[in-house]
């Protein structure tokens, strides 16, 4: 069991989108937005936005709408983006390297401190000045460096053993890309990413009309 959030997960999943959208408004120098305008642009009802934000105290005033900068700053704080985080990547294959090379995470405060792999051919190679280390050095590294988030990019067969090692070494948050349901203690936060779920949703939608048409014709 991973740590359960207090606010419902669907609400939490909407927050990054609000934040992203408000950032765009700020960039375009928009100072204020009505809840109706915000909801229309985001494709969420105004009451949904209000309810979501009410979990964290009320924002916006009747008839005034939202002060864009204020709401953006509040969401920044709610999402914990007013702090920085140290991360490590386990598995420096295609995915691990792509994530390591993506500098935007750093811009948002997620600082990559170490990359580990099991393949000796990768040891010593650098990605953005960070050396790929032997995964045997992981526990020693974690005892000397305060790491907040481990990013797991290894084949699924090795993932549970690696998660156990990370938890034992004190890691409290795992961003898991391995296609496996990991078992972690209650005080560890596990966030799974499945790009393929999104791709399959896309392929479903490409086929939906035909699928439902056939169903009607079968009747
Ligand atoms: P890859 O084979 O290119 O890289 C895997 C790397 O992990 C290799 O360098 C290998 O030496 C290393 N490794 C294996 N066992 C290890 C261990 N115990 N400790 C440290 N390093 C270890 O594979 P790729 O394409 O990078 O995929 C990695 C994982 O991510 C796979 O489980 C894959 O299924 C998953 N994946 C998930 C996606 C998602 O959306 N969730 C998208 C793409 C890949």
From TrEMBL:
Listed binding positions for NAD(+) are 91-96
By its UniProt entry, which SUPFAM superfamilies does this protein fall under? NAD(P)-binding Rossmann-fold domains, Winged helix' DNA-binding domain
List where in the cell it is found: Cytoplasm
* Name of one Pfam family that matches: CoA_binding
Specify the DNA-binding region ranges: 17-56
Q: Which InterPro entries match?
A: CoA-bd, NAD(P)-bd_dom_sf, Rex_actinobacterial-type, Rex_DNA-bd_C_dom, Tscrpt_rep_Rex, WH-like_DNA-bd_sf, WH_DNA-bd_sf
Please state every residue range assigned to the domain named CoA-binding. 80-181
First-listed, main subcellular location of the protein, grouped into a coarse class = cytoplasm
Keywords assigned by UniProt, alphabetized: Cytoplasm, DNA-binding, NAD, Repressor, Transcription, Transcription regulation
Q: Which domain of life is it from?
A: Bacteria
Role summary: Modulates transcription in response to changes in cellular NADH/NAD(+) redox state.
The cross-references to HAMAP family, in alphabetical order and at most eight, read: Rex
Query: Which family does the record claim for this protein?
Result: Belongs to the transcriptional regulatory Rex family.
Assembly information from the UniProt record:
Homodimer.
Protein name (database record): Redox-sensing transcriptional repressor Rex
């Amino acid at each position: 069991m991973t740590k359960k959030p207090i606010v419902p997960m669907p609400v939490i999943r909407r927050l990054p989108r609000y934040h992203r959208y408000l950032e765009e408004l700020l960039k375009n120098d928009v100072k204020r937005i009505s809840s109706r305008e915000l909801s229309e642009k985001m494709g969420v009802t105004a009451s949904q936005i209000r309810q979501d934000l009410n979990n964290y105290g009320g924002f916006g005033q009747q008839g005034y709408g939202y002060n864009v900068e204020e709401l953006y700053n509040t969401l920044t704080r709610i999402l914990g983006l007013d702090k920085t985080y140290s991360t490590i990547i386990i598995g420096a294959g295609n995915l691990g390297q792509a994530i390591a090379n993506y500098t935007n995470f750093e811009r948002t405060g997620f600082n990559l401190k170490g990359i580990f792999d099991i393949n000796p051919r990768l040891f010593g190679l650098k990605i953005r000045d960070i050396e790929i280390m032997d995964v045997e050095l992981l526990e020693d590294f974690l005892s000397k460096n305060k790491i907040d988030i481990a990013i797991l990019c290894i084949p699924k067969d090795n993932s549970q053993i690696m998660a156990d090692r990370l938890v034992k070494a004190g890691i409290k948050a795992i961003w898991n890309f391995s296609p496996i349901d990991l078992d972690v203690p209650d005080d560890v936060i596990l966030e799974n990413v499945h790009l393929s779920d999104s791709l399959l949703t896309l392929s479903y939608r490409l086929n939906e009309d035909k699928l439902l048409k056939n169903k009607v014709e079968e009747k």
